[in-house]
Every structure is written in C-alpha cells, then in structure tokens.
Amino acid sequence: MLIIVKAGFNPRNSCFFSNYLIERKTKYLWNNFSSPFFNINVGVGQELALSPILSALYLLPVFYIFEERLKNLEIHISFISFVDDGLFISQNKSFNISNTNIFCSYHIMFLLLEHFRLFHFSRLQGAFNFLL
C-alpha cells in the first residue's frame, strides 16, 4: 500500500486497493486433488482485472533502481516488462559486449528481485545455470 500512496493516488483510491487486497483466499487443484481454502496476504492475484495494473505499480520502484544501477555502471541495456515476463535488449557490434551486458543486467535484476523478496528463484531447476 505504501507504493500506492507514494504513487500519488488519493486516499479514496488507496482505501479501495487496500480493501481489494485483504481477506483473499486460494486453493490448489492438481488432477483429482483439491485442497481446502488458504488465506493469502501477499501478491495481487492472477487472472484478476487489476492484477496487471497492481503488478506494474508494485514493480516500478524495482525497475527504477535497476535503471539507476545500469546507468551508474554504464551498461547500455533496454528493458521491456510485460505482465509476466521481461526482455533485455542489447545493441552492440560486439557479441561479447552485448552478451556481457545482458548477463550483468540479468544478474542485477535477479539480485534486486530476491532482495525485495518479490520472487524466489531456485537454482536446482536444470542442468544449465549460468549464474553458478
């Protein structure tokens, strides 16, 4: 909610978002298994009309810090964010420079997302992991 307030929304809108995000429940379905309902107090909920808007607002401070770090390190990368995905773009005549810039950018974003506990990444998912 702090992000909503800092983004300049009036108190009435902030109250709406606060009510929208509380007392939500979820359950898990897997084949024939159906879990009981669990209370959830994090995230914005998938497939809800406001999810893309709230996700974008929530991630804006991370993207700002990311761009500032790239600027300070003089890494020339463009970043495009979609609702559930992102794209790093490097334009350079040298493949090695482009590859290094993308690798560094990915690592910076990885650290930011983990630092702010927005996502948890497991390094046990595949045989190839270029962060090791």
Structural class: alpha+beta
Largest sheet: 2 strands, antiparallel
Rounded mean pLDDT is: 80
Beta-strand portion reads: 5-15%
Helix content: 40-55%
Count all strands and give the number: 6
Shape: globular
Distance between the termini: 36 Å
User: What does the radius of gyration come to?
Assistant: 18 Å
**Biggest sheet: strand arrangement:** 1-4
Unreliable runs: 127-132
**Tally of distinct domains:** 2
Number of helices: 4
Q: Say what oligomer this is.
A: single chain
What does this 3D model show about the protein?
This protein is an alpha+beta fold. It is globular, with a radius of gyration of 18 Å. The chain has a two-stranded antiparallel ribbon with strand order 1-4. The protein has a two-stranded antiparallel ribbon with strand order 2-3. It has helices at about 1-5, 10-20, 50-75, 95-115; strands at about 25, 30, 35, 40, 80, 85-90. The protein has 2 domains: about 1-40, no CATH class; about 45-120, no CATH class. It is about 45% helix and about 15% strand. A hairpin with a 2-residue loop joins strand 2 (about 30) and strand 3 (about 35). Helix 3 (about 50-75) crosses helix 4 (about 95-115). The model is unreliable at about 125-130 (pLDDT under 50). The longest helix has 23 residues, at about 50-75.
Secondary-structure blueprint of this entry?
Layout: H1 2-6, H2 11-21, E1 24-26, E2 29-30, E3 33-34, E4 38-40, H3 51-73, E5 78-81, E6 86-89, H4 95-115
Antiparallel strand pairs: 1-4, 2-3, 5-6
Entry summary:
Helix content is about 45%, strand content about 15%.
